[in-house]
């Protein structure tokens, strides 16, 4: 293990922002690896994910929160609780504000929540690649007037601009501390959670509005075996839960075409992550109103 400098800093950092603000993409860019799933539909993130960024000068443990919105279902309420919990006991907060969108009521609602934490709040002006440099300057002025941020850093997770600078600014807000996780750790999620998130990501890709966020994934069985040729093989049986029969049809597609496509995409990303061959068996189940069913939510880990 390399030597830890005496002025090393470490702590927990909440990444907040309204749905679609770019939190998951920024988390992945900061870690340099995919740990959070992303999509262009709001409210993709359902879990509080811990991603770990380790640098020469410190270690930031990122808590990726679900986009904040007014709760309509029991799932919504639990997500809200998860966000509030994740703002307690953090050492710093990063609030994502997209460069290409005006500050709105959703952001102001989050400012109010952020005021309740004692931790410094850094503004990350995200998606700067989508606007002209002069617009970034205007945005910085708008953001500095809207809230008393400790620092403001414009960043593009997609173009990779200023991601390192943001990491440096965030680490500087953390208290002096030895590393809290091993230096090579990137996440504390279980393999099962990561696999189910990758399957959910594949399920959400290319879906039109008719199947919004009624999709949940459970891993029913997972087994490490070998192929006939003796190579390591990960066998996974998973269920895709939807709320209605009509949604089941959408997921399966004509003659099962969509489901096969989901299986192929998910298998590829799982193989990439684990570096071994994967056999993936997917079942689609209708679990009526799972977002309102306490038993089902518990099973899914909410
Ligand atoms: N051009 C560009 N697009 C970005 C950037 N960061 C995120 N996006 C896009 O913005 C959309 C939302 O990004 P996410 O990272 O999923 O947003 P999120 O805040 O985690 O969203 P929720 O999970 O809904 O809370 C995706 O389509 C991303 O590809 C960026 O730096 N540049």
TrEMBL record:
<dbReference type="InterPro" id="IPR004044">
    <property type="entry name" value="KH_dom_type_2"/>
</dbReference>
<feature type="region of interest" description="G4">
    <location>
        <begin position="126"/>
        <end position="129"/>
    </location>
</feature>
<dbReference type="InterPro" id="IPR005662">
    <property type="entry name" value="GTPase_Era-like"/>
</dbReference>
<dbReference type="GO" id="GO:0000028">
    <property type="term" value="P:ribosomal small subunit assembly"/>
</dbReference>
<protein>
    <recommendedName>
        <fullName>GTPase Era</fullName>
    </recommendedName>
</protein>
<feature type="binding site">
    <location>
        <begin position="17"/>
        <end position="24"/>
    </location>
    <ligand>
        <name>GTP</name>
    </ligand>
</feature>
<keyword id="KW-1003">Cell membrane</keyword>
<dbReference type="GO" id="GO:0070181">
    <property type="term" value="F:small ribosomal subunit rRNA binding"/>
</dbReference>
<feature type="region of interest" description="G2">
    <location>
        <begin position="43"/>
        <end position="47"/>
    </location>
</feature>
<dbReference type="Pfam" id="PF01926">
    <property type="entry name" value="MMR_HSR1"/>
</dbReference>
<feature type="region of interest" description="G1">
    <location>
        <begin position="17"/>
        <end position="24"/>
    </location>
</feature>
<dbReference type="InterPro" id="IPR015946">
    <property type="entry name" value="KH_dom-like_a/b"/>
</dbReference>
<keyword id="KW-0963">Cytoplasm</keyword>
<feature type="domain" description="KH type-2">
    <location>
        <begin position="207"/>
        <end position="288"/>
    </location>
</feature>
<dbReference type="Pfam" id="PF07650">
    <property type="entry name" value="KH_2"/>
</dbReference>
<feature type="region of interest" description="G3">
    <location>
        <begin position="64"/>
        <end position="67"/>
    </location>
</feature>
<keyword id="KW-0342">GTP-binding</keyword>
<comment type="subunit">
    <text>Monomer.</text>
</comment>
<keyword id="KW-0690">Ribosome biogenesis</keyword>
<keyword id="KW-0699">rRNA-binding</keyword>
<dbReference type="GO" id="GO:0005829">
    <property type="term" value="C:cytosol"/>
</dbReference>
<keyword id="KW-0472">Membrane</keyword>
<feature type="binding site">
    <location>
        <begin position="126"/>
        <end position="129"/>
    </location>
    <ligand>
        <name>GTP</name>
    </ligand>
</feature>
<keyword id="KW-0694">RNA-binding</keyword>
<dbReference type="GO" id="GO:0005525">
    <property type="term" value="F:GTP binding"/>
</dbReference>
<dbReference type="InterPro" id="IPR005225">
    <property type="entry name" value="Small_GTP-bd"/>
</dbReference>
<feature type="region of interest" description="G5">
    <location>
        <begin position="155"/>
        <end position="157"/>
    </location>
</feature>
<dbReference type="InterPro" id="IPR009019">
    <property type="entry name" value="KH_sf_prok-type"/>
</dbReference>
<comment type="function">
    <text>An essential GTPase that binds both GDP and GTP, with rapid nucleotide exchange. Plays a role in 16S rRNA processing and 30S ribosomal subunit biogenesis and possibly also in cell cycle regulation and energy metabolism.</text>
</comment>
<feature type="binding site">
    <location>
        <begin position="64"/>
        <end position="68"/>
    </location>
    <ligand>
        <name>GTP</name>
    </ligand>
</feature>
<dbReference type="InterPro" id="IPR027417">
    <property type="entry name" value="P-loop_NTPase"/>
</dbReference>
<dbReference type="GO" id="GO:0043024">
    <property type="term" value="F:ribosomal small subunit binding"/>
</dbReference>
<dbReference type="GO" id="GO:0003924">
    <property type="term" value="F:GTPase activity"/>
</dbReference>
<dbReference type="InterPro" id="IPR030388">
    <property type="entry name" value="G_ERA_dom"/>
</dbReference>
<feature type="domain" description="Era-type G">
    <location>
        <begin position="9"/>
        <end position="176"/>
    </location>
</feature>
<dbReference type="InterPro" id="IPR006073">
    <property type="entry name" value="GTP-bd"/>
</dbReference>
<dbReference type="GO" id="GO:0005886">
    <property type="term" value="C:plasma membrane"/>
</dbReference>
<keyword id="KW-0547">Nucleotide-binding</keyword>
<comment type="similarity">
    <text>Belongs to the TRAFAC class TrmE-Era-EngA-EngB-Septin-like GTPase superfamily. Era GTPase family.</text>
</comment>
């Amino acid at each position: 293990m390399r030597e830890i400098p005496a002025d090393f800093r470490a702590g927990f950092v909440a990444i907040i922002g309204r749905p679609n603000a770019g939190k998951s993409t920024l988390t992945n860019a900061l870690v340099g690896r995919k740990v959070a799933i992303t999509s262009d539909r709001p409210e993709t993130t359902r879990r509080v994910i811990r991603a770990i960024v380790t640098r020469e000068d410190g270690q930031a443990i990122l808590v990726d929160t679900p986009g904040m919105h007014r709760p309509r279902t029991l799932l919504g309420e639990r997500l809200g609780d998860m966000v509030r919990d994740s703002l307690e006991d953090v050492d710093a907060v990063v609030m994502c504000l997209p460069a290409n969108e005006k500050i709105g009521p959703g952001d102001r609602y989050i400012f109010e929540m952020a005021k309740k934490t004692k931790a410094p709040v850094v503004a990350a002006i995200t998606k700067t690649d989508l606007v002209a440099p002069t617009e970034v300057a205007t945005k910085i002025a708008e953001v500095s007037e809207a809230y008393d941020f400790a620092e403001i850093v414009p960043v593009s997770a997609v173009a990779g601009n200023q991601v390192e600078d943001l990491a440096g600014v965030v680490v500087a807000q953390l208290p002096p501390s030895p590393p809290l996780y091993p230096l090579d750790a990137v996440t504390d999620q279980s393999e099962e959670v990561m696999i189910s998130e990758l399957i959910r990501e594949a399920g959400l890709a290319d879906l039109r509005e008719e199947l919004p966020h009624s999709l949940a994934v459970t891993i029913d069985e997972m087994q490490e075996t070998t192929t006939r040729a003796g190579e390591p093989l990960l066998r996974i049986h998973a269920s895709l839960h939807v709320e209605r029969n009509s949604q089941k049809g959408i997921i399966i597609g004509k003659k099962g075409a969509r489901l096969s496509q989901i299986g192929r995409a998910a298998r590829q990303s799982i193989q990439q992550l684990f570096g071994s061959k994967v056999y993936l068996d997917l079942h689609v189940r209708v679990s009526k109103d799972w977002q309102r069913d306490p038993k089902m939510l518990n099973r899914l880990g909410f």
